[in-house]
Design goal:
The complex is a heterodimer of chains A (about 100) and B (about 300). With about 100 residues, chain A is α+β, with helices and mostly antiparallel strands. Chain A is built from three helices and five strands. Classes of the chains: A alpha+beta (about 100), B alpha+beta (about 300).
């Protein structure tokens, strides 16, 4: 399993009034990045990863009521994309 | 992007710039306000009053208060990161307390170098607020904010300046506060030279009749419509002759930068000249009306 964290300069705001299962999440690399928005399951994936969930695919599968193997590839691919765009960082494993 | 999100990103972005460049700033109003001072509404839990929800404040811009010695540095850094000046300090309110900067996609920000109503030396006032700061997360970033007591004072002064004495900010910050909380606000106001403005917002202005600032805060808190009355009160409230003359001149001459914003382009010499003439006529009419009103009042009181 891979652990993630929020990069030091990424600001994040969950859309108002939806603290539990937000429909939209706004991200911005400070101070000069362009704001990005993640909708629906993309927002949930970022939030789960940012909160330290180690098996994000399993958590997403639970949220959407599907078996883990059906969503795992898409979730892992999206997580990799978030990391490559600097919107998530890989947590260093303890030595 | 929703406006409320842009405001949060603005606060966080400024904090990053402040951290990077050793700039002290306090985030005020908007998302920086303590939860205990927010409006509450019944939640959707059952029974209905079992849970309340805090209502986020609606703002049109972000507000920060900067250590006066760091203002120029902050503005310089902001300019290097895409911010442009919309209104300079001297273009803003009669208090010249804030400059407004705008950004291509973030919410505008009012950079305060002092807070209207706090007449203490701005550097000393900032230091007093700074020493009791704490941090709150805005867009995930730790942003320094004044103490809750100072936030109460700021909200009361802000509503009072706008003549909104029934504003819910005053109710939550003062009316519904405990005796101890009010006493703490009064003590802080005394230290910051804000006792007259606080009194104006909390129904005790008569206690300060005859003191400097009384007429200004009476005019502001009662929603005085006559610009000349406010102008006169503002001039009278200046502690020095130089300040009074400067304020008098500044308030009566037209402001080319504001004209530029209104027109959407640089005003022509002819337009500025016409504005001067209009201001002069306006000033004459208002003063004449004031004189007539004061004569009528004098006859009525005999």
């Amino acid at each position: 399993m891979t652990a993630y964290r929020i990069p030091p300069r990424v600001a994040h705001v969950v859309s108002d009034g939806e603290p539990d299962l937000p429909e939209a999440l706004f991200l911005m690399q400070l101070p000069d990045g362009t704001p990005q928005v993640l909708h629906g399951s993309a927002a949930w994936i970022w939030l789960l990863a940012a909160e330290g969930e180690e098996d994000v695919a399993a958590a997403v599968a639970h949220l959407v009521g599907r078996p883990r193997h059906e969503v795992a590839a898409d979730v892992e691919s999206f997580l990799a994309e978030l990391v490559s765009r600097g919107l998530l960082a890989l947590e260093e494993s303890p030595a | 992007m929703p406006w409320s999100v842009g405001i949060r990103f603005t606060h966080a972005s400024l904090q990053v710039l402040a951290d990077d460049h050793g700039i002290d700033l306090l985030h005020i109003k908007g998302p920086a306000v303590d939860d205990s001072l927010l409006e509450v509404q019944p939640g959707d839990a059952s029974p209905p009053d079992a849970r309340v929800e805090r209502v986020a404040r609606q703002s049109i811009d972000a507000d920060v208060l900067v250590r006066p010695a760091h203002v120029e540095r902050l503005l310089d850094v902001m300019h290097r990161h895409g911010w442009t000046m919309k209104y300079r300090f001297e273009d803003g309110s009669a208090f010249e307390h804030a400059a407004t900067l705008v950004h291509p996609f973030l919410a505008p920000v009012d950079v305060h170098r002092r807070f209207p109503g706090m007449d203490a030396n701005p550097t000393a006032a900032f230091e007093r607020l700074w020493e009791e700061r704490h941090v709150v997360p805005i867009a995930g970033f730790d942003c320094p904010v004044p103490s809750v007591t100072a936030q109460r004072l700021v909200l009361v002064l802000h509503a009072t300046r706008a003549g909104r004495l029934q504003h819910s900010d005053i109710q939550r910050s003062w009316t519904f506060a405990t005796d101890d909380e009010r006493a703490a606000v009064r003590r802080l106001a005394d230290e910051l030279g804000a006792e007259v403005a606080l009194a104006a917002g909390t129904g005790r202005l008569a206690d300060y009749d005859g003191t400097r600032g009384y007429e200004l805060w009476r005019a502001l808190s009662t929603g005085e419509q006559s610009r000349v009355r406010i102008w006169l009160a503002r001039v009278k409230s200046e502690p020095t002759v130089f300040g009074a003359v400067r304020t008098a001149v500044r308030l009566i001459v037209p402001n080319p930068r504001r004209m530029r914003t209104t027109l959407g382009r640089r005003p022509t010499v002819r337009e500025v000249t016409r504005a001067y003439a209009q201001r002069a006529r306006w000033g004459y009419r208002e003063v004449a009306r004031l004189v007539r009103a004061s004569k009528g009042a004098s006859r009525g009181t005999r």
